[in-house]
Design goal:
single chain, 364 residues, alpha/beta, two-stranded antiparallel ribbon, 16 helices, 50% helix, binds inosinic acid, binds zinc ion, zinc, Ado/ade_deaminase, nucleotide metabolism
């Protein structure tokens, strides 16, 4: 019942990694294909794929495997399409999908062509209407298209999709800058921000700082994976940078909480991810409760719906049972996320209208 309710309400997803959101069935299919071609030994990876509880270290091993099976443009396009369809089927009405543009010379793939393959995937979604452009002129025409979007007498579902380009902590300062340059070039094609992610025990904050400063100075919002492992110096430096949002905030100490609350930096909370990777020992001690009580801006997210076998509705159902949230509270939590999306005011306005209509349809 709780889960049904969570599915029925509109939701906003702000922290979802494209390759981490890959469907289980697609991942298995692609791995088998590569096994048949002899590129990988399927029996050696089968247990990694089918395992459900993975430590943070194992999760990053799985990402390496996923990246091995998603190296060509066609596959990138396919998984993008499927991921959007899955979020839309879960009643996600606004999705900020993040991904690390990858260069792969053996496949003739550049960071730009990787991103173009992602855009192709967004365009090829047909089970739902997708609004994906950040450009105001294009927005206007996609909006008028929505008016005619009647199928068998019913208006098709609509999902807004925007992209964040991720900088992987493994890269050099130059490569980080390249990703920011690409994001700036692609602003008219749905790219609305930059993310810093990747294995949190690798790399140095100062390597990424010039690229992140540049993004910020160009008016491109930045979100950072922050405090996934205990690293007070980095957490302080990240908060001093004043990102528009941060993800996780698992290993904060008293002083860092104080600072975060003063600055009112919104937090993207990924409950299942934190528990599965053991960055938080149990939901009883999860910082969601304190931030929620303090009315700190936050949003529930999936992180890697495929890798952690979750969905945004499942995350809301989990929050409801763990922290005692009722239907109205869950709805309001989802609705408040509108304030912290990176898309433009036109999208915010339309989402507010969507939520107002849903509130009345759901008798709230
Ligand atoms: P991609 O950017 O679409 O390839 O999505 C997968 C990538 O997202 C991984 O290789 C990591 O760099 C990043 N990622 C996914 N989950 C996490 C996480 O929990 N912490 C840090 N980085 C992550
Ligand atoms: Zn993440």
């Amino acid at each position: 019942m709780e889960m049904e309710w969570c599915v029925s309400m509109p939701k906003i997803e702000l922290h979802a990694h494209l390759n981490g959101s890959i469907r289980d069935s697609t991942l298995l299919e692609l791995a088998k294909e590569l096994g048949e071609k002899g590129t990988i030994v399927f029996s050696e990876v089968e247990h990694v794929l089918s395992k459900n509880d993975r430590s943070l270290v194992e999760v990053f091993k799985l990402f390496d495997l996923i990246h091995n099976v998603t190296t060509d443009h066609k596959t990138v396009t396919r998984i993008t399409k499927e991921v959007i369809e899955d979020f839309a089927a879960d009643n996600v009405v606004y999705l900020e999908l993040r991904t690390t543009p990858k260069r792969n010379d053996s496949k003739g793939m550049s960071k730009r062509s990787y991103l173009e393959a992602v855009l192709e995937g967004i365009k090829s979604v047909d089970s739902v209407e997708v609004d994906f452009s950040h450009n105001t002129n294009v927005d206007a025409s996609s909006h008028s298209h929505a008016v005619d979007n009647i199928c068998n007498g019913y208006e098709r579902k609509k999902i807004y999709v925007r992209l964040l380009l991720s900088i992987d902590r493994r890269v050099t300062a130059e490569a980080a800058m390249e990703t920011v340059e690409l994001a700036l070039e692609m602003r008219d094609f749905g790219v609305v921000g930059i993310d810093l992610s990747g294995n949190p025990v690798i790399g140095q904050w100062l390597t990424y700082l010039p690229a992140l400063e540049y993004a910020k100075n160009q008016g491109l919002p930045v979100t950072l994976h922050c405090g996934e492992v205990p690293n007070p110096d980095e957490i302080h430096a990240m908060l001093d940078f004043l990102p528009m949002r941060i993800g996780h905030a698992c290993c904060f100490e008293e002083e860092e909480w104080k600072f975060l609350k003063q600055l009112k930096i919104p937090v993207e909370i990924c409950l299942t991810s934190n528990i599965r990777t053991e960055t938080i020992t149990s939901l009883d001690v999860h910082h969601f409760a304190d931030l929620y009580k303090s009315n700190h801006p936050l949003v529930l997210c999936t992180d890697d719906a495929g890798v952690f076998s979750t969905s945004l509705s499942a995350e809301y159902a989990l929050a409801s049972s763990a922290f005692g949230l009722g239907k109205r509270e869950m709805f309001e939590l989802a609705q408040k996320a509108i304030e912290i999306i990176f898309a433009c005011d036109r999208v915010k306005r339309e989402l507010k209208e969507m939520f107002a209509k849903a509130a009345s349809d759901l008798d709230l």
